């Protein structure tokens, strides 16, 4: 008899709990973010929003920084702008790097790459920094917490003569 009552009680609990309507709020917005800003530890002492630093050699060539679309995928291509932030950048465009300033997230996709070409300045020593920030577009804003990433471009020391 106890088994029957237990099974009957369990059946009633399952029956009544499965009929409860769940109205979870959904977010319908969209933002873009640098993947490296999401998964890497921010650089200590950076301003808000904090950002990570990625160290690359001046011989690396091309650096692909993945940009994520957080939200529903779009049915058409989305051009996303990004900029160089002067405060946090010591690298010189055309000397240390080249960058287009935009990327395209293809239709029905959630990612694209911001491409930065690192120029080989030779063995002159030291390092320079390049701070990038996503601007988004008219429909897609940048994520406030993950919109910046910095590249530190290292240059080997000149050989002793």
Your description of this structure?
There is one protein chain. By secondary structure, this protein is mainly β. The protein has a single domain (32-154), classed as Sandwich (Immunoglobulin-like). Helices cover 13% and strands 37% of the residues. The protein is built from two helices and ten strands. It has helices spanning 2-17, 35-39; strands spanning 31-34, 53-57, 62-70, 78-84, 97-99, 102-105, 111-118, 127-136, 141-142, 148-154. It has a five-stranded mixed β-sheet with strand order 5-7-3-1-9. A five-stranded mixed β-sheet has the order 2-10-8-4-6, with no helix packed on it. The mean pLDDT is 91.
Strand order of the largest sheet: 5-7-3-1-9
Under CATH, the topology can be stated as Immunoglobulin-like
CATH class: Mainly Beta
The number of distinct helices, counting runs of at least 4 residues, comes to: 2
- Average per-residue pLDDT, rounded, comes to 91
What would CATH call the homologous superfamily?
CalX-beta domain
Rg is: 24 Å
Distance between the termini: 96 Å
Strand content: 35-45%
The low-confidence runs, each spanning 5 or more residues with pLDDT under 50, are none
Listing every helix as H and every strand as E from the N terminus to the C terminus, the arrangement reads HEHEEEEEEEEE
């Amino acid at each position: 008899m106890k088994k029957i009552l237990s099974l009957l009680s369990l059946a009633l609990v399952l029956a009544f709990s499965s009929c409860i309507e769940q109205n979870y709020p959904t977010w319908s917005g969209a933002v873009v973010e640098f993947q490296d800003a999401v998964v890497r530890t921010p650089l200590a002492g950076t301003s808000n929003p904090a950002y990570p630093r990625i160290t690359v050699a001046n011989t690396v060539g091309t650096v692909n920084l993945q940009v994520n679309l957080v939200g529903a995928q779009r049915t058409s291509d989305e051009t996303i702008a990004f900029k160089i932030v002067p405060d946090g950048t010591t690298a010189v465009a055309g000397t240390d790097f080249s960058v287009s300033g935009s990327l395209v997230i293809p239709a029905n996709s959630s990612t694209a790459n911001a491409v930065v070409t690192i120029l080989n300045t030779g063995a002159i020593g030291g390092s320079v920094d390049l701070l990038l920030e996503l601007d988004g577009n008219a429909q897609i804003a940048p994520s406030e917490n993950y919109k910046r990433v910095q590249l530190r471009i290292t240059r080997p020391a000149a050989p002793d003569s």
